[in-house]
Amino acid sequence: MLDRIPTAAPDSLQIADRLRIGGLTRLTTIDYPGELAAVVFCQGCAWRCRYCQNGDLLEAAASEQLIAWADLHAFLRQRVGLLDAVVFSGGEPTLQTALGAAMIELRVLGYKIGLHTNGAYPERLHQLLPLIDWIGLDIKALPEEYPALTGGPHSGEQAWASLALLVASGVKLEVRTTLMPDWTPDYLRTLSHELAAHGVQHYALQVCATQRALDPKLPSYAVTPRELVTAVDASCFERLEIRGL
Predict the structure, then answer these.
(1) What are 148-194's pLDDT values in tens digits?
(2) Residue 133: CB partners within 8 Å, gap ≥ 6?
(3) How does 34-46 read in b/e, with b if 16+ C-beta sit within 10 Å?
(4) CA 185 to chain centre
(5) What is d(CA 123, CA 113) in angstroms, rounded to the nearest whole number?
(6) pLDDT tens digit string along 111-139?
(7) From the candidate CATH numbers 3.40.50.970, 3.20.20.70, 3.40.50.720, 3.40.1410.10, the one assigned to the domain spanning 12-243
(8) Angstrom distance (rounded) from CA 135 to CA 174
(9) Cis ω on the peptide bond leading into residue 91 (within 30° of 0)?
(10) pTM of structure
């Protein structure tokens, strides 16, 4: 990882202008730990996760609903001193090559940068690391289970490669997993032990909102989420959070 934050290039605003922005949360206290933040939702994702809640952000094609970068940049200039951070979410932000330029422009304004990512592009993630202060990484399953969940044939290898990269980098990292309705306590126990063995210190478990899932055939929970999470040994992690119970 580079040890110096790049400064804005003369054409970085023009490059950032290519960023496809599908939505904006103007103020949040939960998307970047300990900071007041805005969340920028980037349009487009290569995966089709069965439990996805943001189906309107999946298609990469331009839409009349997209937010112009110039408008977003102007809004965030006005919020300097009121907000601490900007989080890029999605969709999958690292799908877009304009993401780095957008991050640089907001660092110049003084914002901390957060990223929510599925880890689909570890090489791009490596290039972006000097620009990022905090990352929330989705680890959806054990590597071999990914294709059935995401529709991507190599998605498991990509996501776990990103995990190894981020753990080694020392960036502030939260790994989160959405509890699939057909999982057993034994499966979740195995997954959580693997993550602990890979160096994960901050782990968050999230309940799947099956009624809003991309896959309408996603079943209801066979074992209640409350029962599932008891399979995770909290002592394996520095911090364990359970969300949505």
Answers:
(1) 999 999 999 999 999 999 999 999 999 999 999 999 999 999 999 99
(2) 85, 112, 113, 114, 171, 172
(3) ebebbbbbbbbbb
(4) 25
(5) 19
(6) 999 999 999 999 999 999 999 999 999 99
(7) 3.20.20.70
(8) 6
(9) yes
(10) 0.92
